[in-house]
Design goal:
With 429 residues, the chain is an alpha/beta fold. The chain has helices at 2-16, 18-29, 37-44, 48-63, 82-93, 109-123, 137-149, 165-172, 190-196, 219-236, 297-310, 318-324, 334-350, 373-381, 407-423; strands at 69-70, 132-135, 155-160, 176-181, 201-207, 241-245, 268-273, 286-290, 363-364, 385-386, 388-389, 399-402. The strands form three sheets. Strands 2-8-7-6-5-3-4 form a seven-stranded mixed beta sheet, sandwiched between helices. The structure holds pyridoxal-5'-phosphate.
Length: 429
């Protein structure tokens, strides 16, 4: 009876919407879609990270979660520092009146002040709270910067391999990505960058420590980049801005000190977040900091605040702004990532894989032993190992491993990597 009722209801729905359905079919046949062509194109080229994630879910359903070794997604598995949880509880127990209300679009003054103090100490530059805009993660911050800077058709130079979302963020603001190759060791190739700079260049976007390679750009390369940009600014009679994505800035290894781009180039905008250093990716909290030496500073800050507002972020999450303020000098235990880097890197090197040793972030980017990186990652998939092909980052012939996972996932995956290495003759003995 219930079934019959359901059938009648469905029939009634179809009859009532007959016109709509015919109209939809007509539109489909005539190539008119509900969604934008740009988005449709992006969806057709769906992200490799996402694709692998979905295939992984299927494998997990078939073999059980513990028997699938998932290195596809850069999702930090460490818990935030206990002090954050304590502060969260304190705030819930002793709420501050108005703490859930709207605020100035650049964020709480107290939080920006603490960040400015931290940045002044780090860079030796006179940062003030007015140079900071709190954002919805680094992703939100990048979109805010790009909206503030770009006019239709402006170009942003990006060294490749690169975090694929950059392309979409640039296009969100009507810009175009201009990819340049890096050197063999994934360091900045200044010659290629110089060749790429032209009339349409508005900015260069660098990411160090890098996703997907884990490479850190050294001080010398940043100094040279700064010299190049200053020279080009003179020749072209304009200012090219340097956007530094430092989402992984706290995750560095081997005792190295991460160079501070603010020290070398005045027109620098840093975007970062607490997604990785405090393991808070789901909470969406980050900031943009603009060098106090940046040209037309007041106008730039006004543009960033406007972008934050009108992109619909309005302001960064209020609760998180309060909680991260006292944690500017804290982070999760980076040594845990370093140990995993050592374990994974050393084992893969022993099996004969070619890899540049990463000095930061939580990724390895080995060379695939065959040209076709997609065919190669399928091979790994047959061992229930999930990775992302290099072409997902603009670099076919490589593959990315995100190792922000439990140590035992790495350990249990190693035999599979070894078998595949043997199959392709990578093993030395
Ligand atoms: C290079 C890079 N930039 C930005 C982001 C976005 O970070 P957030 O979570 O802070 O938006 C990511 C995230 O993985 C990233 O890898």
């Amino acid at each position: 009876m219930a079934f019959l009722f359901q059938v009648l209801c469905n029939l009634e729905f179809v009859l009532a919407h007959r016109g709509d359905i015919r109209e939809k079919e007509f539109r489909k046949e005539n190539g008119r879609m509900a969604i934008s062509k740009k988005v449709k194109g992006a969806l057709n080229g769906a992200s490799w990270v996402r694709r692998m994630f979905e295939e992984g879910e299927e494998l997990k359903r078939t073999y059980g979660e513990e028997n699938v070794f998932d290195f596809s997604l850069g999702n930090p598995n460490l818990e935030p520092p206990p002090s954050l949880k304590k502060a969260l509880k304190d705030l819930a127990d002793h709420p501050i009146t108005g703490m859930h209300r709207y605020m100035a679009n650049n964020g709480y003054s107290e939080t920006r002040k603490v960040i400015a103090e931290y940045l002044s100490e780090e860079s030796g530059l006179p940062f003030e709270e007015k140079h900071i805009v709190m954002t919805v993660g680094a992703a939100g911050g990048l979109n805010v910067i790009l909206k503030a800077l770009l006019d239709e058709g402006d170009e942003v130079i990006v060294p490749s391999p690169y975090f694929m979302e950059f392309k979409f963020y640039i296009e969100n603001s009507g810009g175009q990505i201009h990819l340049v190759e890096t050197n063999e060791d994934f360091s900045l190739n200044l010659k290629e960058i110089e060749k790429a700079i032209g009339e349409r260049t508005k900015a260069i976007l660098i990411n160090s420590p890098n996703n997907p390679t884990g490479v850190v750009y050294n001080r010398e390369s940043l100094e040279k980049l700064s010299d190049l940009l200053k020279r080009k600014n003179k020749v072209l009679g304009k200012t090219i801005h340097l956007i530094t994505d430092e989402a992984y800035r706290r995750i560095v290894f081997d005792g190295i000190e991460l160079p501070i781009p603010f020290r070398y180039y005045p027109h620098t905008l840093r975007v970062t977040s607490h997604s990785k250093d405090l393991s808070l990716p789901g909470e969406r909290i980050g900031y943009v900091a603009v060098s106090p030496l940046c040209e037309d500073l007041d106008e730039m800050m006004a543009a960033l605040v406007f972008a934050n507002r009108t992109l619909g972020f309005v302001n960064a999450p209020a609760l998180m702004q309060r909680l991260v303020a006292p944690l500017q000098r804290n982070s999760v235990n980076i040594r845990i990532y370093e140990e995993k880097r050592d374990l994974f890197y050393n084992a893969l090197k022993d099996f004969g894989y070619q890899i540049i040793k990463p000095q930061g972030a939580f990724y390895l980017f080995p060379k695939a032993p065959i040209e076709d990186d997609v065919a190669f990652i399928k091979e790994l998939q047959s061992k229930r190992i999930l990775t992302v092909p290099g072409r997902g980052f603009g670099k076919p012939g490589y593959f990315r491993l995100a190792y922000a996972v439990d140590k035992k996932v790495i350990e249990r995956a190693l035999p599979g990597f070894k078998e595949v290495a043997e199959k392709y003759g990578l093993m030395r003995n």
